[in-house]
Amino acid sequence: MSETTATAPARREKLPKRKRGRPDSIRLLLNNALATAGLVVFVLIVLVAVAAPLLPLPDPDATAPANRLLRPLAEGHLLGTDALGRDILSRLIWGTQVSLAVGVSATLIAAFFGSLIGLVAGYAGGRIDTLLMRGIDMVMAFPYILLALAIVAVLGPGLLNALYAIAVVNIPFFARNIRGIALGLSRREFVDAARLSGKSNAQILFIEVLPNVLPVIIITMSTTIGWMILETAGLSFLGLGAQPPQADLGSMLGEGRKILFTAPHVSVIPGVMIFALVMSINLLGDGVRDVLDPRLKSGALTRPVARTAVMRDQVPGGIEPDAEAVLDVRDLKTEFRFGGDVFKAVGGVDMKVGQGECLGIVGESGSGKSVSAMSIMGLVPTPPGRITGGVALLEGEDLFAASDERIRQLRGSAVSHVFQDPLSTLHPLFTVGDQLVEAIQAHAPLSGSAARKKAADLLKTVRIPNPAERLKSYPHELSGGMRQRVCMAMALAHDARVIIADEPTTALDVTVQAQVLSLLDTLREERNAGILFITHDFGVVSAICDRVAVMYAGQFVETGTTEEILTSPAHPYTAKLIDCVPVLGEPERRLDAIGGRPPVVNDLPVGCAFADRCPRAGDDCRAAPIPLTEFGEGRTVRCIHPLNAEAEHG
Amino acid sequence: MPAGPLEPRGKSTVTAYIAKRLLAAVPVLFGLTIIVFLIMAMIPGDPAIAILGSYATPENVERLNRQLGLDQPLFQQYFIWVGNLLQGDLGRSYTLNRPVLDEVMERFSATLILAGTALILCSVFGLIAGVVSAVRQFSWVDKAVTFIVLIGISVPSFWLGLLLILVFAVNLQWFPASGMFAIYGGGDLPDLLHHLFLPAITLAVVATGVIARLTRTAMLEVLRQDYIRTARAKGLTERRVIYRHAFKAAMVTVIPVIGIQAGFVLGGAVYIETVFQWPGIGSMLVKAISTRDLLLVQGGVLVVAAAYVLFNLAADVAQTVLDPRLR
């Protein structure tokens, strides 16, 4: 908590509490605290149960009719006595020992046979796999407890038989989980290597594969052992498990049930014990799973809020809006936080888009170009993203200061988006028509039929043949190019002043790319909307953009008109990127021509971020931050040894 | 992938799919009969002796074995059994002295009322709890739901039933402690609901926890998807984004699990029916196992297993109706 308050001292925006992105550690701590509590309780129960013979307990089976049904806290009987006058505390501890032993044994048996089946099926594959897994499916076609009952019916009532029954019905869980992992492992190189070295299948299976599936076996055991204790207790409760005089927690509960109304403590107490035991195991298992689950670590299971959190240290005042620019972004800073790490994805970026103008932002993946574009309308997921500085003026209005409702009104109307992969960006379960109609009705009070008509018109605008029929299609029924046209139609539903296109052509093949680009170009001319075009491809840039900004490690390294930059790049990075442009007819040309990798944005160097990959870099490049400087008319470059300097400065 | 021709879509494909799934369920049901038959065939001891008693003469035993077809090879016995089964003949319960089918069907209708109600309850409450928990992630509501869910899946349902009886039937006397109808003057719907309340809730608790957990995870996963960002970029209200776009997508993952929960609810009915003396198939099975009335066990297991297959089939179909990609 102290960390959040320290890094965002002067928070001007009044944000609802849950938008502040809690640090993960609190949640982990809470889970750990619960898991720790579970561990303590579980260990305590196990210790007491194991120590039963050493404890000064009365004989659990010694009956004393004179002392029957004593209430808890009675003299000499802390938890009272049952219908035969037996001491409940003693019976409870001995019964816990039995229940634990049965639960653990059932788990071990199920784990052994289930894992064996899973390993063999996964490793052998083919017919053996099919045969074994069909068998497992067949077993799983029965309701879990019912199958256990049927097995007990065959074997006859008894604790050992109940144990077998519970073990058998749990085998499928192990078999399925382990098979999946073993199947993946058996295709890995180290298994091939072992095979080539002449090891037998059994050797490979137990020496190479088994150690790798062991964690899965343990996780499955920790999640099923609670169940198995519950179910064996259940069978005993029904009178099908432990038979008198032997008693486990379930049979104690079952015996107590008959005198529920007169002496409830006899059945309530063993139930509390079962509950405490299973709950402690589940708490522990959950804690372990939370720590191990990679999805929880990466934040893939945190809910992103409707709009990126804005936490500007100070709101820049006195900015003179550029009257000609529809969209005017100044000094935008966006960060991602994972635990204690801060990734400065965007580190101070200025963007201006005029009416009918197309600004291209070019860079490698990870350069921060998409994050810059998505920050404008608050579409960067929070957590972990947050905007920490700058302003975004849409026709003079600061979007970062606007209310959530205002942003919602502007999204899809004044500012619309076209995203990269149209298959994942369209909702798979709604028809194209429903999604279009929704986009239309979000900002226009049209009736259903009017909106549908408009939707069909929009499809016609993006040149989709047979639009009325196409409205009934689901996204997966359309081709990639067709889907991207639908997305563009959606972006045109209202008279957008700015269209933010985030790699709209990347997922498409070259001919479709060209069609989509020319369509976008026409729409820009007809509707006079400004376009912010994100791409990694200079070929695409030359086709549509008026001006270009080249981005690297969260900052612009060069800006200027498309023509200037393409013909005489000033920054060495730009030059390298241009060399990567695929040339039609030369499909073999290597695209990844820049050696090395971009720096990680949570650990940026002091000086030029590109220095390590740059052939012209000197010590001066690494010494201090390089500012973005004027480089001729309407051009800037962030380099102290620019290329083509002679050409520019004559 | 080129755009396909414009084929007629909608109802016809769904109907075709349902027909296909129904056909695919036939071998599963067939497999169930084999397993049930084999389990019963594994039972040690001579069924004829079991029926006639241990004082039966060898001649009588042999005659009965012939009558029952037990002198035939196993696979022939199976076909005789399935043949009878298809004609609705599951044999005769020797403890009740009535046809197994009659008893099983009568009991099963009571179980269906109980399990069906529980299934509806756990679906409704599980979905609500899961969605609320996901939408308000890390809030106190989320933590409370997570903790209650953990309690729900750790509590022995038969014990919970006893506690509820103690509190609501014995102390408060709001609900009856057992049975399906009042002995005197009962028999109508309000009376049934009155009796149904406690057992249905007890039976639903575990499944509610499982469904709530899964719904929460599914919602959180879906809310990270690109199409949710698209929905927000369109300017939809957050309410619409969550309850229309995210919820529908999450349901595709949750529905099959509801189908699986049907199995746990049908199985769990064994405990609950015993605790609340509900005249269903679960309490019948427990009694039949104790008295070794194996034909009754066989019939009961078969009917419940078949019902489970059909529940899963329904979940399958619901999933397909929801997700056009599966058609």
Automatic annotation (TrEMBL), chain A:
It comes from the Bacteria. This is Dipeptide/oligopeptide/nickel ABC transporter permease/ATP-binding protein. GO terms for biological process: peptide transport; transmembrane transport. Residues 96-285 form the ABC transmembrane type-1 domain. The keyword Kinase does not apply. GO terms for molecular function: ATP binding; ATP hydrolysis activity. SMART domains: AAA. Its main location: membrane. It is found in: Cell inner membrane; Cell membrane. Belongs to the binding-protein-dependent transport system permease family. It is a peripheral membrane protein; Multi-pass membrane protein. Residues 327-578 form the ABC transporter domain.
